Amino acid sequence: MVTIDDYGDYQTAWCPGCGNFPILEAVKKALAASKLEPHQVLLVSGIGQAAKTPHYINANIFNGLHGRALPVATGAKLAYPELTVVVESGDGCVYAEGGNHFLAAIRRNPDLTLLVHNNQVYGLTKGQASPTSEGDFVTKAQPQGMTSYPFNAVAVAVSMQASFVARGFSGLGDHLAELIRLAIAHRGLSLVEVLQPCVSFNKLNTYAWYKKRCQILPPEHDPTNFEAALRVAFEWGEKIPLGLIYRNERTVFEDRFSALDRGPLVVQEVDLEKLTEIMEEYR
Amino acid sequence: MVTIDDYGDYQTAWCPGCGNFPILEAVKKALAASKLEPHQVLLVSGIGQAAKTPHYINANIFNGLHGRALPVATGAKLAYPELTVVVESGDGCVYAEGGNHFLAAIRRNPDLTLLVHNNQVYGLTKGQASPTSEGDFVTKAQPQGMTSYPFNAVAVAVSMQASFVARGFSGLGDHLAELIRLAIAHRGLSLVEVLQPCVSFNKLNTYAWYKKRCQILPPEHDPTNFEAALRVAFEWGEKIPLGLIYRNERTVFEDRFSALDRGPLVVQEVDLEKLTEIMEEYR
Amino acid sequence: MSDGSFNILIGGEAGQGLATIGELLAKAFGRGGYSLVTTSTYESRVRGGHSTVALRVSAEKVASPSESFDLLVALNPESAKLHRKELSTQGLIILDEAFQVDDEACIRVPFKELAKGKFSNIAAVGVVGFLLGLEEQSLLGVLVDFFGKKKPQLAGENRETLAKAFRWAAQLPSSFHRKLTLISDPAPRLVMNGNQAIALGALSAGVKFCSFYPMSPATSIAIGLIGKARQMGLVVEQAEDEIAAVNMAIGASFAGAPSLVATSGGGFALMVEAVSLTAVSETPLVIVVAQRPGPATGLPTRTEQADLEFVLHAGHGEFPRAIFAPGTVEECFHLTRKAFELAERYQGPMFLLTDQFLADSYRAVKPFDLKSISPVQVASEVSALSTPYCRYTITDSGISPRLLPGRSERLVVADSHEHTEDGHITEDPSMRKRMVEKRLRKLEGIRAETIPPDKNGDVNPELLLVSWGCSKGAVSEAASRMRSEGMSVSTLHFSQVWPLISEQFRHHLEAAKEVVCVEGNATGQLANLIHRVTEFQMARRVLRYDGLPLTPESILRELN
Amino acid sequence: MSDGSFNILIGGEAGQGLATIGELLAKAFGRGGYSLVTTSTYESRVRGGHSTVALRVSAEKVASPSESFDLLVALNPESAKLHRKELSTQGLIILDEAFQVDDEACIRVPFKELAKGKFSNIAAVGVVGFLLGLEEQSLLGVLVDFFGKKKPQLAGENRETLAKAFRWAAQLPSSFHRKLTLISDPAPRLVMNGNQAIALGALSAGVKFCSFYPMSPATSIAIGLIGKARQMGLVVEQAEDEIAAVNMAIGASFAGAPSLVATSGGGFALMVEAVSLTAVSETPLVIVVAQRPGPATGLPTRTEQADLEFVLHAGHGEFPRAIFAPGTVEECFHLTRKAFELAERYQGPMFLLTDQFLADSYRAVKPFDLKSISPVQVASEVSALSTPYCRYTITDSGISPRLLPGRSERLVVADSHEHTEDGHITEDPSMRKRMVEKRLRKLEGIRAETIPPDKNGDVNPELLLVSWGCSKGAVSEAASRMRSEGMSVSTLHFSQVWPLISEQFRHHLEAAKEVVCVEGNATGQLANLIHRVTEFQMARRVLRYDGLPLTPESILRELN
Ligand SMILES: Cc1ncc(C[n+]2csc(CCOP(=O)(O)OP(=O)(O)O)c2C)c(N)n1
Ligand SMILES: Cc1ncc(C[n+]2csc(CCOP(=O)(O)OP(=O)(O)O)c2C)c(N)n1
Ligand code: SF4
Ligand code: SF4
Ligand SMILES: [Mg+2]
Ligand SMILES: [Mg+2]
């Protein structure tokens, strides 16, 4: 049986009290609960504090460029769909540098789990505003506060009919672990945005700030109801809803490639006969 | 008085019958109707058939890189806010290569007019699918049809509370010209998505196809009602709504920069005294 | 022409089916056993403007475009005017009888009678075919094969048009005939362009993944692969942008699928950060850069060879790479294979540098001996590894044993930071130093596999022409024309432009009385690279940078 | 140290306020009239790990870091252990009395008593200040100025802590004193690091727009400008990515705002396509690339000089550029100005290549004579133009008259395609050729303005050390140390690394018996460039690529 210990225990480079710690635990828990062995799992990340997470989990890892985790994960999934692929990165990585890939991934709907550690700030580069920072967030780089409106990724994802959209909070570890487990189990792109306090640079959206606002969705909420999901998705303020907000059963990206019907690309040998036929077409 | 003739009459490189011609006319009409002189106008575009449009209008032009018109326009607007800046590019340019800037521009809300010539195809590169291509759109590059779900830019823009969201149709020139005039008059980012038949490569979404579906919004539609706008924004299929879908009065990007209170950047001289003070801080 | 080649120019607007005429004729001549080269020029638009397809055919080997023509097919009146001066003395013009062109050399074809509007181009094929002595049956065969797959419903109407045109041409006075020497028992030939050969080469190497964002003149490589994706078991995906394309390919390659991306200069510019990622993560990747004139958008549909130094130095940080520059369609095939082999062996980015001219140029080539070649070897043997498995084990060759994620219980950790042997982030200066050195050591292996340049002609020539990539044919023909005038001219052609191994060719440079480099750019980039590694200075340079391919004529003009 | 400089190393974890100690002491010594150099090393994390700030002070001029220290301030026990071996024979260690470190050289400070937890660093400043002979009043002044603006409420508590620490240190036996020679009537000095000087230089040149995406070690340039945006009338915007940043800057510059972008290698990689756009659209732009070790993410907070060839060749197509590589904080200021001047004059991309070491290194510099300098001239005089106005008028210098959109009735048309003189798309081969040549002609003007390298020492030395950019100080100090041992050593330092004008320096290379290049990379990139333009081969290379800056000691080690 797979246990959380199989996923290892590493020294981290995070600040004491960082909201990333509970997320790391939740991911390991969810992987173990999904009965996946480490070698069946591929963790892909970009660059940032959140993006270091894979280095603290005993699994296959590709830690690539800032903003580019989603395309790497998509490529790996196409090449070897048997891998359970989990993308882990920060709000800056996924919504700023990687914004275009975020849109494209929702439209493609590959079977990936996308965990966005949303601390509403750029942690690793020491505290600039991120796309999710709120208007009155003042930093060295934004001394007058934000010049842009904050990005509500959950709302955009739902309005694009992403196939699985959830929100968790790093302060509610078990709830989060269960969301991640569900996300992994779901076939299609599963976005789990995790509210994550950054104790070093975000003095606005603290543990207390989130705790006061976060409310787990009532069991009546039907994630397959688009209108209801949309309503929930726009809620952000005094109340921030947590849980599985929206889910559908759209066609999964990999399923559209007939070449994959014969098994993963990686195991398919080059068919010399067919190649010869192809060459003959040029005669 | 400014007339449409002030905006010139050029030879184009478009195919006969292209849906871009009526858009070109509508833009010129709208500029004249806005009582703007050519030198007060800056047209910015990327690369594609649509992006050639500025070359056919007598005004200031910056024709830059594929996908990058919005940041160029934003920079120019900040430097010299007195310019009326209109961005013109295709669906591939704005929603694919430029997707990230599309999100950012909505969040920033600079006072730009963004005209997206949406022909649901890559015209200039000869007929690959674009982000707005529909599932059954078959091309040389997509012989099995699209692998991604189409991008509903209007829905995303409304759900991000873009400050002006409209849809026009190249087959309804006067209606379009009026929408563009309104967009120019509106302070803030004004998206006008224009449905534009591509007679060479899009045999699915033809003039007839659009005509059958396009319906101008009834006067009862209240563009300041977010819920109503959202409902309209999701309509796409047998019926495609045209007109001003959503509008709000969000703070305009340029207004957030106190340096602009003293006039455009371009005319502000370097203040040697202040500079000396700044230097002295390092003592 | 004097050298025995026959040169046809088809001129018209975009949208008139020039490419189809070119392809059909090329295929027919290829089947007839002729050597051929096609050259396409077109504007960055879909309809209108001015396009040409030039077809050079010969019973002898031809390898470059020519600037003078024996037959001009003018699909519009402008073409007749524009290209009149390029016509040889015996030259003919084929055009629609309706055109108001006043020229003796004209064959006025009643296209309206022969073909329904959009089949004019097929009628033109028929007339040209007859005049050059192609057999009707063989042309019909080409037609069926060409349209058969794409649009079977068209094949019928086309057959009829072609037959009519043939019959019409048969009644022309024989002074109009330009029958080519018949080749008996023609050996089998493939008629393909550079991009098609790259796609085929990639398939033969075992490419399993290609992601791309459309960009002329690279797009048709991906399109060529897409058509075979189902058959050959590969995935081709159009990405949202070039950054996604290259990162997807890196992901796929990491997971074990030999991967290719193809783009042009501007698209490649967006891939530069990821080039650096392939190097540090040690992920195999083949990158095709099909050049067109810059800077920026430049001339999107024209040709140039100006991205050599850019590609050589693309990416932050220091790491090895190889750059291949095919000069022929055959080389497109073989060098693509070689790029895949090196990418997999040295686990990093390998480049193929082509350009619009070669990408779009059809040639008749010997079928490739697919039996004697094999796909690349992906990853290492699991059994040969020590435990624990370290993705970045430091070795003498710089090459670490590579496993694939999920294919065994061993975990594969790849990282874009500087890392320890097991792939985790480190900031230790001594580990950093060792890893830099490990990666750079791979260059030794890559250097040892470098293809030497191709030397042709006298050992101690009066004149040595140095070239690379697609200008191979033009340069070799310019040289042989000069030779036939009694001059002592040799050529030194580079199909691999990096690494450059001085010992492989310096003596050739020194043995010549004068050395001139011939390149499709404004600064002489290869000449500069050669100077770097040999200190040999080529004072004279024949450079073309107006968007058109080098031709023997253009080279001879500059040399005289 | 033997050379009269005093070297302090502060070691601890990220988050312990090392940078503050370093800055406060630097400012205090700067006010005292001392010459100084600080060197920061830190990990890519926010808390924990191991960081250092080294401070070298002297009454004489110092310009480089040192590897041995006279005073070690250990903010944690590890630092005491890690750096013990770097301590000079008379060296002292200052640490918390609570640490379990067994060493005679220790001064055990009761930090708990002196300061509330987070003010330990201020207490450390007090103790160090006293021991080195700084006056309490002067340190207090620094403190007030430092915190005064940022966090006035902290100034009070800090003052108290400092005063306590001073008093405590005063009771230490005088064997612990390390009073520096007092400088009477110290001349005024600015204490600033490389990035701050770039920001100030840009402001003095009239920068009006800066867009950026955060990336170490470049971020603080933009931050430096943001702080002054309102005062100085400029706009600074954090972009969604580097591509947006550079394109926004291009837009702003097109509209008349002198613009700057600053990033590091990976971010710059994303700007490469736009570099090519600035060239073809002829838009002025200053691009700062603050180097860090690659490939890819590499060592994000360390230093390297490995992006020279990358920056030199970045961008598809061919166009001119200049690359400046400041070696000192003063040069950061002046070369930024020069880059702006060239960008506006030649209407294209101009580069500043720095690195983490210089970016973060504080020095005491003479105040800049702001009266004698002027902002750049933007655009041409409207009156001096012919009609119709053509943005890309072909001229002998390659420079076309530039107007700004909206500022007159003349329309300004800028284009990324090849274009006619009036800025509209063309595919005409002869216009293409003329435009390529026009753009390349600008290189002549740029070459004529090239700053020659700085030669120091004997005309015919035994040994000539060649260097560029940030290693200036280390190399010059290594040379002077060798000279003081009776060797004949000269230096040749490049602060502009492109264009390289052979005539400016080839004779220096030839006049030396041995020439050694000293660079912070693994392949000797400047040596390779110099070889390109001079054919002079530097066989011996001192290269450092472990992420740390070159020091005189590291150079001397390699040379022996
Ligand atoms: C191309 C590129 N641009 C910028 C950076 C610098 N960078 C590293 S992490 C980061 C932002 C981190 O923010 P986020 O993604 O929210 O992660 P967090 O640290 O907050 O977890 C940036 C800008 C980079 N590594 N690469
Ligand atoms: C970086 C880059 N990638 C690709 C291209 C090639 N390209 C030119 S236009 C275009 C797409 C055009 O589609 P769209 O934006 O929808 O415009 P349309 O032609 O349909 O009006 C592409 C991919 C390019 N010029 N630059
Ligand atoms: S800076 Fe913020 S996000 Fe990063 S490790 Fe520290 S607390 Fe966590
Ligand atoms: S290809 Fe389509 S979009 Fe382009 S000009 Fe022709 S019809 Fe218009
Ligand atoms: Mg973050
Ligand atoms: Mg389009």
Q: What amount of the residues of chain C lies in strands?
A: 15-25%
CATH superfamily of the largest domain in chain C: Pyruvate-ferredoxin oxidoreductase, PFOR, domain III
Helix content of chain A: 25-40%
Q: Report the CATH topology name of the largest domain in chain C.
A: Pyruvate-ferredoxin Oxidoreductase, domain 3
**Biggest interface, CB < 8 A:** C-D, 67 and 66 residues
**Overall domain count of chain A:** 1
Secondary-structure element series of chain A: HEEHEHHEHEHEHEHEH
What does the radius of gyration of chain C come to? Answer: 25 Å
CATH class of the largest domain in chain C: Alpha Beta
Helix/strand-derived category of chain C reads alpha/beta
Attached small molecules:
thiamine diphosphate, iron/sulfur cluster, magnesium ion
- Spans of chain A of at least 5 consecutive residues whose pLDDT stays below 50 are none
Could you walk me through the main structural features you see in this protein, from its secondary elements to its overall organization?
Chain A is of the alpha/beta class and 283 residues long. Chain A contains 9 helices and 8 strands. Chain A has an 8-stranded mixed β-sheet, with helices on both faces. In chain A, strand 5, helix 6 and strand 6 (190-195) form a beta-alpha-beta unit. The longest helix of chain A has 14 residues, at 20-33. Chain A starts with 19 loop residues before the first helix and ends with a helix. Chain C is α/β, with parallel strands linked by helices. Helix content of chain C is 38%, strand content 21%. The longest helix of chain C is centred in the C-terminal third of the chain and has 20 residues, at 429-448. At the B-C interface, loops of B face helix 8 of C. Strand 2 (60-63) of chain A pairs parallel with strand 15 of chain C. Residues 14-15, 18, 20, 49, 119, 123, 198-201 of chain B line the site of one iron/sulfur cluster.
